[in-house]
Amino acid sequence: MPPLIISLTSDMFPVSVLHQMSSHAEPEVLLEKVGRAGVITMNRPKVLNALNLTMIRQIYPQLKKWESDNETDIVIIKGAGDKAFCAGGDIRAVTEAGKVGDSLAQDFFREEYILNNAIGSYRKPYIALIDGITMGGGVGLSVHGRFRVATEKTLFAMPETAIGLFPDVGGGYFLPRLQGKLGLFLALTGFRLKGRDVQRAGVATHFVESKKIPDLQKELVDLKSPSAEDVSRVLDSYQSQSSLDAEKPFILKKHLSDIDRLFSASSVEGIVKNLKTDGSEFAKKQTETLSKMSPTSLKITLKQLQAGASLSLQDVLVMEYRLSQACMRGYDFYEGVRAVLVDKDQNPKWNPSTLEEVSDQMVEQCFSSLGEKDLTL
């Protein structure tokens, strides 16, 4: 089995790496027109293309421009380097801002979610080449688009409960729409999916071998006024030529019915009780994983996905913005980032420290309206 989040290391949250930008610094995001395709490249390979506010502020207006531009037919988004598509948002900067009351703590989430919504409602074919680590904010840049192409190098996770946050960027929309309780399982445990399994789970639409990606991109760029169906045909044809790992079963296949059964309780306490009662090796592992997560995050996340199952992406993002600001007002997000990213002792001291101490009222408060400060889409 792949490593669970219980082996959480700072490389899951690579935004902790701070690079001194030299005077001839590379642009953090490349926006190019290649033929009739708009191509976005996240260009911070040394920090696994972590997404910051500067990048969001470049990508969003360009996306809107291409959407209404008659000379642009499709948009392709990818990551520079050979390790990551985008390993997450630059959350260390966000917590630093939150501590001193800097507006980045609002601006980052607001503008990131506005970008997620623009991708989710994009009127032209949007193709994310997720050829590498794709977590958190990187999932938000890909999963809401029409096409998501995984490769054997793709590593997907939503590991936010381990840092006192919740699976945001529209996680409340896409996760409950995966098969059965799979999305809730991924949201609470931060379980990592690799390669073809990212498609099998429904997170990616296609699987193409990494070495074929340059040819795939060239073929997509060369399409003449393509419809979504034309793009689909090209992706299908590359997928049919990619047999790597096809014979390997989905890593969670034998556990799917257990996941549906064990994670169907209406409370986190109920899920933990189910896991402890079950006592299988798999259930024990999940119990151990959940015991390391922020109890507040676990409860917020369950309610987020329960609500999100019947909401539009827009309404989910409005809800998640409220949750993001509740986390900025709280304690666990700062403590989680400290333990995982800053001091790297991997030993967060959550407050409250048990599920029982997180009251329904505390959870409810996180979802309450911010009035005129609410996200508007």
Automatic annotation (TrEMBL):
CDD domains: crotonase-like
Places the protein is found: Mitochondrion
Membership in a protein family: Belongs to the enoyl-CoA hydratase/isomerase family.
Keyword Hydrolase recorded: yes
Main location: mitochondrion
Organism: Oreochromis niloticus
InterPro entries: ClpP/crotonase-like_dom_sf, ECH_dom, HIBYL-CoA-H
PANTHER family assigned to the protein according to its UniProt record, in alphabetical order: 3-HYDROXYISOBUTYRYL-COA HYDROLASE, MITOCHONDRIAL (PTHR43176:SF3), 3-HYDROXYISOBUTYRYL-COA HYDROLASE-RELATED (PTHR43176)
Keyword line: Branched-chain amino acid catabolism, Hydrolase, Mitochondrion
Domain Enoyl-CoA hydratase/isomerase, residue spans: 38-367
Official protein name in the record: 3-hydroxyisobutyryl-CoA hydrolase
Molecular function, one GO term: 3-hydroxyisobutyryl-CoA hydrolase activity
Pathway: Amino-acid degradation; L-valine degradation
